[in-house]
């Protein structure tokens, strides 16, 4: 099987407190936090590697990200993926999910044909859950999201997709585009040998021109989604000084709480 995994570097959740949004561009300021593999995408890589171990083939990583995301892709290579493609160009900055899907679709088509395309069901930084469906539509392939179980039996995919109240079982034929939820598996640990091997695996970078795209296809120009105005809320507290002993202060506090409707 030839399997592609669309992998997104996201800011490390342990540093979310440092993240800010540029009030002019409305874009996330990503330089203040280190980038890691999107948690759900890590499960997609694990799913691909297990299918490869069972049925043979290769696993290819594809990511639209800034140049420094090469380090994140090498982590996926160290897990066991065979090669990686980084789609990186300043023209991609500000892409919404549709523009991102266009870029990823162009990259996937340029690489070649795939039996299966996997992605995480949602990204940790935006959480739209759009990507698997948008990729499927642009590629003209069947697609399904939020999978919690997946197996291949005699060229038939058997799948479980979680819903609000449980799950639904599906069967489908390859090729497909699938989004996997974090419940589907437990990603493997990266070994020292995996890290060493990753250094010798192909990591190819393609630009807008390499993909044959127009500047109007990506970035802010290719994104129909437009963020609104941003306002930083002010946090103010009213201070009232109480005088007298503890008993007098307690009586006054109760009176204040009853006046505010907190106590009856």
Give a brief outline of the structure.
The chain has 264 residues and is an alpha/beta fold. It has helices at residues 39-55, 70-79, 97-111, 131-139, 192-198, 246-259, and strands at residues 2-6, 9-11, 20-21, 28-29, 35-37, 58-64, 83-87, 116-120, 143-153, 156-163, 166-173, 176-180, 203-206.
Describe this structure in words.
- With 264 residues, the chain is α/β, with parallel strands linked by helices.
- The chain has one domain: HUPs (Rossmann fold), CATH 3.40.50.620.
- Helices cover 27% and strands 26% of the residues.
- It contains six helices and 13 strands.
- The strands form three sheets. The protein has a nine-stranded mixed beta sheet, sandwiched between helices. A two-stranded antiparallel ribbon has the order 2-5. Strands 3-4 form a two-stranded antiparallel sheet.
- A hairpin with a 6-residue loop joins strand 3 (20-21) and strand 4.
- Helix 2 crosses helix 5 (192-198) and helix 3 crosses helix 4 (131-139).
- The longest helix is centred in the first third of the chain and has 17 residues, at 39-55.
- The radius of gyration is 24 Å and the shape is elongated.
- The N and C termini lie far apart (68 Å).
- The mean pLDDT is 90.
């Amino acid at each position: 099987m030839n399997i592609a995994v669309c992998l997104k570097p996201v800011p490390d959740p342990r540093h979310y407190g440092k993240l800010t949004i540029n009030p002019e561009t409305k874009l996330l300021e990503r330089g203040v936090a280190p980038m890691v593999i999107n948690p759900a995408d890590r499960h997609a890589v694990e799913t691909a590697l297990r299918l490869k171990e069972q049925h043979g083939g290769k696993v290819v990583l594809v990511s639209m990200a800034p140049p420094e995301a090469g380090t994140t892709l090498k982590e996926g290579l160290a897990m066991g993926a065979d090669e990686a493609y980084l789609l990186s160009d300043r023209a991609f900055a500000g892409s919404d999910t549709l523009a991102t899907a266009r870029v990823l679709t162009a990259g996937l088509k340029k690489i070649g044909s795939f039996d299966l395309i996997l992605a995480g069901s949602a990204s940790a930084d935006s959480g739209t859950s759009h990507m698997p469906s948008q990729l499927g539509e642009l590629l003209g392939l069947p697609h399904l999201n939020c999978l919690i179980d997946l197996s291949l039996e005699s060229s038939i995919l058997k799948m479980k997709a979680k819903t609000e109240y449980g799950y639904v079982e599906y069967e489908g034929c390859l090729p497909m585009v699938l989004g996997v939820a974090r419940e589907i598996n437990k990603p493997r640990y990266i070994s020292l040998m995996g890290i060493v091997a990753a250094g010798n695996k192909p990591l190819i970078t393609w630009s807008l021109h390499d993909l044959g795209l127009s500047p109007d296809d990506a970035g802010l120009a290719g994104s129909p989604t437009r963020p609104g105005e941003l306002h930083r809320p002010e946090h103010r507290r009213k201070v009232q000084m109480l005088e007298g002993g503890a008993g007098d202060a307690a009586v006054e506090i109760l009176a204040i709480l009853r006046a505010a409707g907190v106590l009856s």
